[in-house]
Structure formats: C-alpha cells, structure tokens
Q: What sequence folds into this?
C-alpha cells in the first residue's frame, strides 16, 4: 500500500489543477480566461486544507470485545477532528465503540487522553473531549459548514489517517448529495464522494473549498473505482447538540415500519402523491397498540403534512418521528380504504439499541443482554433475558454443547434474566470449584427447551 503523505497530497492537487487548466485551454479562446483562473485552484484548495488539517487527529483506542467467548482487548485506530477551542472532537461511533481507553495525536505531535462524551450508533457519530490541562497551548479547531448547500460536482477533500499512517488529504467531488443506503440510513442520508478514503479514515472530516467541515467520513469502498460515504454536517450538528445537552441522542420510538409511495426495489407503486405507507408495525410497539395497519397511508403528523415518495425521503420521516415528545400522544392523519382517520400514537423512549456484555471465565463463554433492535429474533422468544454471545474454542462451553444465541433460562436451578444474576452465579461457582465443577444450564434454542451440563473443571487458559 502506497503511503499518502502531505507532500503527495499537495502534488496531487497541483497535478489536478494543471489538468483543469489544460482542459480549459483546450476548449478554445472563449474559455481561455477561465483556464487561466483555474490556475488559482491550487491556492483555493491549499487555503481550505490549512484551515482544517491542523485540527485532524489520529485516534488510537483500546477496545474490549466479547465475540470470541472471552474478553479480549483490541487496538483500534481511526481519525477525528477537533471542533472547539475546549477540545471537543468528532469521530465515528464504530471507532470508539466499547473503548476503555482513547488517545488522540495532533498534527504538531501533542498527544491527549480523551473521554467519550456520547455516541449515537444509529448515525455512527461520537463526540469526544480531549483532556486539556490548564496552561496548554491553544488547540487548533475547525468549524462545521452547511452540507445542504452542496451539489453534485462540488470539490471536497477527505482528511484523516488511513491505514494507521500519518495524516493525508485526498481530493475529489461530491458524487451524490443524498445517497440512501439500505440498513444504514435510519435517520440520515449520506454524502457520496470519489475522494480517496481508506481504512482508518473513519471519523475524519470531509471539507469543502471554504475550509469547512461538511461531513464526517464513515465508510469507503475501494472496489469499483472507489467510493466514500460521509455523514452530512446537517446531521452532525444535530447529534452534537443532543450529546452536549443529554450525553446521548434520545430518540423516540413508535415501531412504525415505513414504505415509500414509489417502492422501486419491490416494484410496488401506490396511487397517491402525498404521505407514506405503513409497511407494518413492530410487536408491542406504540404504533401497533394504537391500531395502525399495513397499507395505511400516513399523510400528516400533528397536522403537518409529510411525504416520502421515494426511499431517499424515508430518513427524514424517521427523523421526524424520532423527535416526537415521549409519552405525549401524537396525532397521525391516515388514509385507510379511502377514508381519512385520526389515530393517536404515544411514542416511547427508544433507549439502548444494543445490550451489555459479560465475560464468564472458566465457563469459557460470554453473554449479552437481549435487545429488541439488536436481536429481534431472540426478542421474539424472550422480551427480557440474556443469551450466549460468544464461545471460546477450545473451551468448556464448546465441549458441553452450548451454542451461540442460546437464551439462558436457568443456571444451577436459578432463573436468570439479567447479566448481574449470571455474574453472581458465575462467581459463586468459581469460588466453590474445588467442591463442584459441574452445573446444569437450561437454554431456549430456536424455541425449544434444552438442558446442558457444563463441566468447567479444566482450565484452558493455563494449558
């Protein structure tokens, strides 16, 4: 992999500007003056880069993962950008997710410990606070721009620390301002760019030619010529405000499943020009309790008209539903069988979208709390509970016949529904291992009750 350096980035910009200049001159006398003016493009890009580049940080995290049946510490690297004089920095949720230690390296070589102020998995954003001691030299920071002003063809720069290397900058254009990515566009669309984005660029800024942050990079696809996707600054600004005020984004939940009026992927087109369709409702959700049905067409929320003609307009609808006051009835105007009805839905707090995890040493498996959003297949069987998240190989759990996604019902004859209950039983069993090293575990596997005898006499960690 070729390392991208600061000088390489400047050279690329220079070459790009020269190409633009030559192209304009080749166009003929009428565009000759325009060709001369493009020679200033290098300065425009350099000025914009200089405003943001010093604020870009290299992030190194120590993360705890439980997927392999035991708690393992991993080193994760990514990028970020400082957005305030006090040391607030933006990055991605997936960069700092489950991190127990976060360190940031600045352009000038200074390093800072950082804490996570808040994250939002749904938009893949996180806000950090650098540990700035009194008397510290002022920190460079960049400002958020307006992503709604972007148009396809506008020049942008992607900055970050790809592949764990020194900072780099790549240049490209906005390929699409409203890219919809299935399963990744819950509340926000994406900015698509052809600026080179590599692994480790995650969390770095996407910058316009005015030297403003118009997006936070989150994904890159190297195949097919290379595509990058960034979270628009419009979404970023909202998330930052929520984290500053609440420490998290406190979305509301209705349980509505949405469908656009023109569903190209499913080849379904509804004979309407206003509203959006109800594709279904989640079990035990406010929407289902309110009586909303599939093929209902919602045309207004609290009297305000709302429409999703195509899939690209669905995130805005979910965003509006996510901001409804919790515990307060919202009035939905719907059309059902050509009749207009008023239905009141009372949103609840969405809460966590992923369950907590726990390591069970010597048992050689890890467990996780069931969450309706993260594990809907398990939530169907058990609304509150814990399940086998990871199994160590080789290990006592794998030898006993436990499987991933087994829902734990009883351990040693004691009913369990929380991590704390399992933790207490586990501690007691390890404390008394010399007297007893077998324990019966009742699990629910694909809806069927099973019993497993776990023998944890053997210590695989010492072998």
A:
């Amino acid at each position: 992999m070729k390392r991208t350096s600061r000088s390489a980035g400047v050279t690329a910009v220079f070459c790009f500007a020269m190409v633009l200049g030559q192209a304009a001159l080749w166009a003929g006398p009428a565009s000759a003056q325009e060709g001369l003016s493009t020679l200033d493009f290098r300065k425009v890009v350099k000025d914009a880069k200089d405003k943001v580049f010093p604020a870009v940080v290299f992030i190194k995290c120590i993360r705890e993962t439980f997927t392999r049946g035991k708690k393992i510490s991993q080193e994760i690297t990514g990028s970020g950008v400082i957005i305030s004089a006090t040391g607030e920095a933006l990055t991605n949720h997936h960069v700092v997710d489950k991190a127990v230690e976060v360190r940031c390296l600045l352009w000038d070589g200074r390093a800072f410990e950082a804490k996570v102020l808040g994250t939002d998995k749904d938009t893949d954003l996180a806000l950090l606070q650098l540990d700035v001691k009194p008397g510290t030299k002022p920190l460079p920071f960049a400002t958020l721009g307006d992503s709604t002003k972007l148009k396809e063809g506008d020049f942008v720069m992607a900055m970050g620390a790809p592949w764990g290397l020194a900072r780099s900058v790549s240049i490209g254009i906005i390929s699409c301002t409203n890219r919809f990515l299935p399963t990744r566009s819950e509340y926000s669309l994406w900015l698509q760019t052809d600026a080179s984005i590599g692994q480790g660029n995650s969390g770095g800024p996407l910058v316009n030619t005015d030297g403003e942050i118009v997006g936070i990079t989150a994904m890159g696809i190297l195949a097919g010529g290379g595509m990058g996707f960034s979270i628009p600054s419009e979404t970023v600004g909202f998330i930052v405000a929520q984290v500053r005020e609440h420490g998290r984004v406190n979305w509301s939940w209705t349980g509505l499943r949405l469908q656009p009026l023109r569903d190209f992927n499913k080849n379904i087109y509804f004979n309407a020009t206003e509203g959006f369709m109800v594709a279904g409702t989640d079990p035990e959700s406010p929407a289902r309790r309110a009586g909303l049905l599939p093929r209902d067409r919602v045309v207004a929320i609290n009297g305000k008209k709302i429409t999703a003609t195509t899939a690209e307009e669905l995130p805005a609808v979910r965003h509006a539903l996510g901001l409804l006051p919790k515990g307060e009835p919202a009035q939905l105007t719907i059309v059902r069988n050509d009749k207009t009805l008023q239905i009141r839905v009372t949103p609840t707090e969405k809460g966590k979208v992923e369950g907590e995890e726990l390591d069970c040493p010597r048992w050689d498996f890890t467990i996780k709390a069931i969450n309706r959003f993260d594990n809907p297949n398990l939530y169907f069987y058990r609304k509150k509970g814990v399940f086998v998240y990871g199994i160590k190989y080789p290990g006592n759990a794998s030898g006993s016949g436990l499987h991933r996604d087994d829902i734990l019902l009883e351990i040693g004859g004691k009913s369990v529904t929380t991590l704390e209950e399992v933790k207490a039983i586990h501690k007691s069993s390890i404390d008394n291992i010399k007297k007893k090293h077998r324990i019966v575990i009742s699990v629910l596997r694909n809806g069927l009750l099973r019993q497993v005898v776990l023998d944890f006499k053997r210590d695989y960690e010492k072998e």
Notes: Residues 6-26 form the longest helix (21 residues).
